[in-house]
Amino acid sequence: MRNIFYVIPILFLIAACQEEGILTRDQEEVIVNPTAELKYYGTFVPTSGITVNGDAKIYLENNQYKVQLENFAVSGGPDLKVYLSKSASPNEFVNLGNLTSQTVYPIPASVIVSEYSHVLIHCQQYNHLFAIAPLTQN
Amino acid sequence: MKKIFFFLIFLLFVNEITAQGCSDAGICSVNKGFVVDSLQLKNTLEFSSVYSLGEADLQYLSHYISYTKRFNERFAFSSKVTLSTADGSFGTRTQFGDAFLIGNYTFKEKNNKQWSALLGLKFPFTASNLKINGYSLPMDYQSSLGTIDVFLGTSLHYKRWDFNATFQIPIINLNKNSYFKEFGGTDDFPSTNLFERKPDALFRATYSIKSPTSKFIFKPNVLFIYHLGEDSFENIFGQRENIKGSDGLTINGNLITTYTFNKQNQIELFIAAPFVVRDVRPDGLTRSFVLGIQYQYFF
User: Fold this and answer.
1) How far B177 CA sits from the closest chain A CA (Å)?
2) Beta bridge partners of B248
3) A21–B65: do the CB atoms touch at under 8 Å?
């Protein structure tokens, strides 16, 4: 019986793993067409204890707005999201998805982009704001 | 009685299996502690492995280990830890699920009727926001609902019948799931960003049939689960939305076969499937077929 007590936790540890599938493989990098029109831009500033570099730019390409993160790097976080926000804090926002290796985040067609003034990097799980990019109209 | 037995078998195997079934979210198996073992040993260790099918192309392999201490004729205490692997188009994800702490009190038998009462808690090991390669996963891939739940239940044992009624009530929501259908690449699963789940009410009726030598016990049972309200999630605009059709009734059929080797060892096989379901199952409790084995060691 004692052996079982040793074996079970080891099996559990071995079993605690993950493997990517068709829907979680790295996607081909989306790029903004060079002919796309730059509408808004801003530079990220970090919140306390966070390091961030890079810019947020909003392009209009074929009637589709897209946020592009350029030369972007940020401190690691467990659940980072890209928000298009109406202020420097995540109160009224559009969640554009998880911050991944992708640099382009499409904005849903129903969003009136001119009403939004910031791009935020926000950790949703721990409700911690990582970085703020105030937007300026081009 | 034979007719009921064959009817259940018929439902399990013939009925089109397209619906929500039981999962190891807790309520389906938590009432097992009520069963008064004929074996009067004070301690029980259980190991269980369950294979099941879920929504879309999902398959699960779940395990649990459980320890029950019977302090006296009346009071027993159980603890249980679950581990589950989900495998499908999003990939394979294995993680611990929940820890259960359950207390059972069995009242004195009167006129062939024996009542029991149950109070339990479920603690999640995760915030239900497991990811693969940085991609958020639907609730169907999560090993836990991400809630601290309380279980309140009662049971009646009458001759060969067992009736259980239990409430599973989320008291603290720790769910931080961040799956959006919009970004998921498939329509198979609904958005469950910052998911909030409503309570469940369960009713189960079990009939026990012993073989002449009592080595085998067959326990066909029917399990009714009513989800008491619509679950909700936070949409991409940060607004909470109810998920229409996520409330309502699930009915599962289950057949348990127990074989007793000796005073200390017992094995149980079970097979289950749903035949009435809720319209939408955002919590990922979508087992359409369940096949399990459980070993019990009494000491």
Assistant:
1) 8
2) B227
3) no
